[in-house]
Design a protein that fits this description.
The complex is a heterotrimer of chains A (288), B (331) and C (239).
Chain A: H1 3-34, H2 41-59, H3 67-84, H4 94-116, E1 131-134, E2 137-140, H5 141-163, H6 165-175, H7 177-182, H8 187-209, H9 221-234, H10 239-260, H11 265-279
Antiparallel strand pairs in A: 1-2
Helix pairs in contact in A: 1-5, 1-8, 1-9, 1-10, 2-3, 2-4, 2-8, 3-8, 5-6, 5-8, 9-10, 9-11, 10-11
Chain B: H1 6-25, H2 29-54, H3 63-80, H4 84-106, H5 111-130, E1 141-142, H6 160-182, H7 184-194, H8 196-201, H9 206-232, E2 234-235, H10 237-240, H11 243-256, H12 263-281, H13 289-304, H14 308-330
Antiparallel strand pairs in B: 1-2
Chain C: E1 7-16, E2 19-29, E3 34-38, H1 45-52, E4 60-65, E5 68-69, H2 75-81, E6 83-85, H3 98-106, H4 113-126, H5 142-154, E7 160-164, H6 172-187, E8 191-195, H7 199-202, E9 208-213, E10 216-221, H8 223-228, H9 230-237
Parallel strand pairs in C: 3-8, 3-9, 6-7, 7-8
Antiparallel strand pairs in C: 1-2, 1-4, 4-5, 9-10
Classes of the chains: A mainly alpha (288), B mainly alpha (331), C alpha/beta (239).
């Protein structure tokens, strides 16, 4: 393997990994705050992508520019989902929790098919289109933008959770629900906030990914399993863990795909998930 | 209860008699096919219920056992000319062995983590099969149409034999589940589901009994997979190994009522009916309507009736006498 | 009379990530003895129970049961050897009836369902829950659930039963009943170690009292000796 090729693979892995991190941070936030695995998280991403697409197709607004609106929309969707469904199953058996979010996943896919058809759609033109060539390595500008976005979202989320009053309250709820309630933090509104922010993160992810990835009702399935791997690897609930885990998963996927064959890359990443679950159930970067 | 209850036995026999006579009354092949689909779903739901319901270990990867069953019997038939009747048993044995190998490490995981691990295992196997040349990868395997008859378990002129075979398989699966439920194993399963630590303190080995649960469950799931292969004469990773198959199997049991003997049968009846009719009513797949109805059903059950339709019926039965009593008091 | 102790604990220590919960504890329990285990909150009583019942691996030391070394055994094996326990925070099988709960215990010695049922009914009668056999465990009062756990443990035919705060939260009459129950267990030849904060429940019936403080044993003697022990008084007053 030449040094150039090696570098190219590494950079591709890094970029993909950051995009995975982008999808996973919202998922891990929700899990961290209330111990519920949101199987519909890929569909939040899908909704974000469609919002970007329609902004582009109907009003000619670039996904990058409409991103704040997309994030706000998805925040609303997250809070709505929490209020209508999740609120009722917080103390339900695990089976109910799994199937409620599974049901949501299918519901969103069905709604997207119903309203927007199963066709693949593309944002054909974007501010961040084209390729970047750096010496001998080449990569897409949209991917680079999404990767930068991932860094931004993770940093923003970290700042919010550790440096703002509201964020600290959210973090406190994540660490100890009962103690937080005793301190006068309203658990219910913290949960709603977690769902709102988690979905908004997926929305931003959707906007960024929409600049280079086809948009269709089941697009979430391309990301959700990987996002789970990232969440597990990063330690359930850890934002920073998810960030680094995303990069690791991306690099392993690209390197593994190169060595074993691209058709096996999902299997490689999922084997990694199994390995981590069995060897270090708290995640690679989780606190033991 | 140890003694067999007469009314229950009579009820079970009546139900069986009804099932035996039903296809003689309903002769339209399309409708018979619909009944077969319900029985197939019911059989899988009952099998899943053994690990997911009684023992409380939520598997979202049962497609892997279903696929192993389908692929084992089909390959044995294609390569060695083995009768699918034996192939079915072979598939069951292979799936059981696989489930034990998988369960051994995975049963250390609790709740969500176990569910996730089962999804991962099933997805990995799907990728491997899709890329396997021996198993014809994504192209899939076809059984030859020419060889019909009971020995080959292929019937081209009538759906009826398939109906009775799957009914028989369902009855066997229900009987196995019933035998487990009323033996010490059934009590241990429920104890493990409710309070694993307390069960250990009473001498119950969690790993041993979870392995028993998944071995039996996967055995019958694989037999269902072999039956599917015989009925459709064609299998590919998408039809027998996809995560969607796993979800549907689990959902049938959950909808009907986990941890009850006949809940999954009821669940299959409801789920398959809604699935088929929403397809008929709202046009072909692709419009999304069937998915929306399916999803709403899942969410409603998850949120409002964790005990499934069986749970609702029990609740009703509990309430009706008390309502009657109240009415009498007023009168 | 068998002179060899039923349970012999020697130099037992248990630390959690450096935090010492049990420090160099040694004591013996003889057949049919009632031993009270007392000490301030956080003294390491439940940790000691968990080590004895196989739920925790001791960091150091030995546990011998009927002369056999069982250090680091599993809960399943401990139960099979004849060590039964209840839990401080009740852990009944909530979706099962009281009868079914106890049947699970009875199945340790005999897997037959019919046999388990009759054994379970005996034990439910023994703890005074015969009339509640068909009640769902989740719908019983906490006091009933605690007795249910005792019945469940007894159904495993133990030689030693570890009772973790079975008298907490009971009123005076109930405490007296619970004390009598422990005595009746003793009359069956079963030894018991009882973690208890309710002194009026344990002091009159215990053959011996062990006192733990900060994870270490500070006293071991008859209730009368313990009541006058300056170290014990200091530990309780200093709390």
């Amino acid at each position: 393997m030449t040094a150039d090729l090696f570098l190219q693979i590494l950079v591709s892995g890094l970029l993909i990994g950051l995009i995975y991190a982008l999808v996973a941070v919202g998922l891990t936030l929700i899990f961290g705050v209330m111990d519920i695995v949101n199987f519909a998280h890929g569909e939040f991403l899908m909704l974000g992508m469609y919002a970007s697409f329609w902004g582009f197709a109907l009003f000619g607004i670039d996904p990058i520019l409409s991103m704040p609106v997309t994030a706000a929309l998805l925040f609303g969707v997250g809070v709505l989902v929490y209020q209508v469904i999740i609120r009722r199953i917080i103390n339900a058996p695990m089976l109910s929790q799994i199937f409620a979010t599974f049901g949501l996943m299918i519901l969103f896919r069905g709604l997207a098919q119903f309203f927007w058809k199963p066709d693949h759609r593309l944002v054909t033109h974007t501010l961040v289109g084209g390729n970047v060539t750096l010496g001998s390595i080449q990569f897409g500008l949209p991917q680079l933008t999404a990767a930068v976005g991932a860094v931004g979202v993770t940093a923003g989320l970290w700042y919010f959770l550790h440096r703002t009053r509201l964020g600290t309250a959210l973090e406190a709820t994540a660490i100890d629900r009962e103690a937080a309630t005793l301190m006068g933090i309203n658990g219910q509104s913290m949960f709603a906030l977690a769902w709102g922010i988690g979905a908004a993160c997926a929305g931003i992810g959707g906007a960024l990914i929409a600049t280079f990835f086809p948009i269709f009702p089941e697009v979430g399935s391309n990301f959700i399993l990987i996002a789970f791997v990232v969440v597990v690897l990063g330690g359930f609930g850890s934002i920073v863990g998810a960030f680094w885990a995303g990069i690791i998963v991306g690099v392993i996927e690209v390197v593994g795909g190169f060595v074993v064959g691209p058709e096996y890359k999902t299997a490689i990443v999922l084997s990694l998930l199994l390995l981590v679950l069995l060897v270090r159930p708290k995640g690679l970067m989780g606190k033991a | 209860m140890t003694t067999i209850h007469l009314p229950k036995t009579v009820g079970a026999l009546a139900l069986l008699g009804f099932a035996l006579l039903l296809p003689l009354v309903i002769q339209d092949p399309a409708r018979q096919n619909f009944l077969i689909l319900i029985l197939m779903g019911a059989q899988l739901g009952v099998a899943w219920n053994i690990i997911g319901g009684y023992a409380g270990q939520v598997s979202l990867g049962h497609a892997v056992f279903y696929g192993i069953g389908a692929y084992t019997s089909t390959m044995l038939s294609l390569k060695l000319g083995l009768s699918p009747w034996l192939g079915m048993l072979a598939g069951g044995v292979v799936a059981s062995a696989f489930s034990v190998a998988m369960g051994w490490p995975c049963f250390r995981l609790k709740g969500h983590y176990f569910a996730m691990a089962t999804i991962a295992v099933a997805e990995i196997v799907q990728v491997l099969v899709t890329n396997s040349e021996t198993l014809e990868g994504a192209v899939g395997l076809s059984l030859p149409m020419g060889n019909t008859g009971v020995a080959a378990m292929v019937f081209s002129t009538s759906k009826l034999p398939y109906y009775y075979i799957i009914l028989g398989l369902l009855v066997v699966t229900v009987l196995a589940s019933w035998a487990i439920e009323r033996s010490h194993i059934g009590y241990y399963f429920r104890a493990i589901k409710d309070e694993p630590e307390a069960a250990r303190a009473l001498g119950v080995s969690l790993t041993r009994y979870k392995l028993v649960a998944i071995a039996v469950s996967s055995f019958f799931t694989a037999m269902g997979g072999s039956f599917y292969a015989q009925k459709e004469m064609f299998i590919d990773p998408g039809s027998v190994l996809a995560t969607g198959v796993s979800i549907k199997i689990a959902l049938i049991a959950i909808l009907g009522g986990v941890g009850t003997l006949l809940g999954p049968v009821l669940g299959a009846g409801i789920l398959i009916t809604i699935e088929e009719y929403s397809r008929v009513l709202f046009g072909s797949t692709g419009s999304g309507t069937d998915m929306i109805i399916y999803a709403l059903m899942i969410i409603l059950v998850a949120v409002y009736s964790p005990a499934g339709v069986m749970g609702l019926l029990h609740e009703l039965r509990r309430r009706i006498p008390s309502l009657r009593a109240k009415a009498e008091v007023r009168a | 009379m068998n002179a060899a102790p039923l349970l012999a604990v020697d130099g037992l220590s248990k630390a959690f990530q450096g935090l010492v919960a049990n420090r160099d504890i040694g004591f013996t329990v003889h057949h049919g003895e009632i031993v009270g285990l007392i000490g301030p909150n956080g003294a390491g009583k439940t940790t000691l129970f968990n080590c004895l019942a196989g739920f925790h691996q001791p960091t150091a030391g030995h546990i011998a049961f009927e002369g056999r070394d069982i250090t680091g055994t599993t809960p399943e094996r401990a139960a099979a050897l004849g060590i039964a326990r209840t839990f401080q925070i009740v852990r009944v099988f909530h979706s099962m009836t009281a009868l079914e709960n106890v049947m699970v215990g009875a199945m340790l010695r005999n897997k037959g369902v019919a046999h388990a049922r009759s054994r379970a009914l005996e034990e439910l009668e023994f703890v005074g829950l015969g009339h509640r056999a068909e009640a769902l465990a989740s719908e019983m009062t906490v006091s009933e659930q605690k007795r249910l756990e005792v019945a469940r443990a007894l159904a495993t035919d133990p030689k030693l039963i570890l009772l973790d705060e079975v008298m907490a939260g009971l009123n005076q009459t109930e405490v007296r009943e619970a004390s009598q129950l422990v005595v009746r267990i003793q009359e069956r030849g079963i030894a018991s170690i009882i973690v208890e904060h309710v002194m009026e429940g344990i002091m009159p019936i215990a053959d011996r009292i062990l006192v733990l403080d900060y994870g270490a044993k500070i006293a071991d003697g008859t209730p009368e000796q313990i009541a006058e022990d300056p170290a014990v008084i200091a530990a309780y007053l200093g709390e």
